[in-house]
Amino acid sequence: MIRFENVTKVLGGNAVLDNISFEVGEGETFVIVGLSGAGKSVTLKHMIRLMQADAGNIVIEGEIINDLGRKALRELRAKFGVLFQGAALLQWMTVHENIALPLRELTHTPEDEILRLVDEKLELLGLADAGAKYPSDISGGMQKRAGLARAIIMSPKIILYDEPTSGLDPVTSRRIDDLIVNMRKKLGITSVVVTHDLHSALSIGSRIMMLHHGKIVENATPEGFIRSKDATVQSFLESQYITRKGKWEEFSHE
Ligand SMILES: Nc1ncnc2c1ncn2[C@@H]1O[C@H](COP(=O)(O)OP(=O)(O)OP(=O)(O)O)[C@@H](O)[C@H]1O
Fold first, then answer.
1. Whose CA is closest to atom 7 on ligand 1?
2. What is the CA(52)–ligand 1 centre distance, in A?
C-alpha cells in the first residue's frame, strides 16, 4: 500500500533520510519510533508529498508519487486522513463545524448528508454531546478525538498520525490508542503512527520501525521489536523501562 524504495532526503546538509526502504501493508497499523530529530515526521510528510525525495521512489497503491501533477496530487491526498501535532481545530468554529469542514470545502455533499455523516463520526468517537461546543471548551483528549473525526470524515484509506498521544495523560492516551485500533477493526483503515510512546507503539502496532540518524535500525512485529538485539533499540527500550525479558503480550490489544 505504501512503499519507500531507497529514499534519501537531504535537509540542511544532512541526510535526514538515508537510503531507506520499507513497506506498509493494507490494514496495518505501522508505527514509527525514534529519538527527536530521527526523521519520523519527515517520513510522514513524504507520503503525502509535503516533502519530495532527493533520490528513490515513494509508491502509494502501486503508483510512484514523486512526479505527480496537481490533479493527481489532489487525488493522492484524498486517500489520506491526517492528524498532525496539535489537533489544529479552528477555534472560531464549533466541533461539529470543524468536522464538517472538509466535506463542505472539498465536496458537493448535500447538507443533510453532511449532518448525518458528522453525527455518525461524533458518535463513533464518543463526542455525541460535544458537537455544539467550541474547541476551547473541551479537553485536550476531546480535541484530539475531534481532530480524528475530521481526519476520517472523507473516508480515507490511510490515516497518518503524528504524535497522537503527546501532551495527554496516560488514561486519555490509552483511549486514543483504542480509537486507533478501532479505526482498523471497524473501518479497515491502514494507519501510520509516529510516536515517542513505546507503550503505545507496542500496544497498537502491527509493525514497529525505528529510525536513527536517518537509517532504519529495526522493522519488526512488536514481539520482534522487544527482542531486538540492536543496541540502539535496546537502549530505547530501556529508556522507557521496557526490557527484552518483558512480555509484549502485556501491551497487546488483541
Ligand atoms: N524543512 C526543514 N528544513 C531543514 N531541516 C529540517 C526540515 N524539516 C526537518 N528538518 C530536520 O530534519 C531532521 C528530522 O526532523 P523530523 O521532524 O522528521 O524529526 P522527528 O524524528 O519527527 O523528531 P521529533 O520527534 O522531535 O518530532 C531534524 O534534524 C530537523 O531539524
1. 11
2. 14
